[in-house]
Amino acid sequence: MTDPPWDEVHHLLGPDRMGALPDLRIPGTSVADWQPSPDDQNRRRGQGVRAGAESSPEPG
Q: Domain residue spans in the chain?
């Protein structure tokens, strides 16, 4: 299954339809607990996209 084109679904995700994104809070965690997630995203940036044995550049 492929992702739907943005122009076909963006109206379903607007703040007027769904409201603002909720705040996420997990008791007992700190910013330091979450920092590995954006660090990993930044580390992987530019590595491209892999699907099975085929890979392609990361979309711009």
A: 6-47
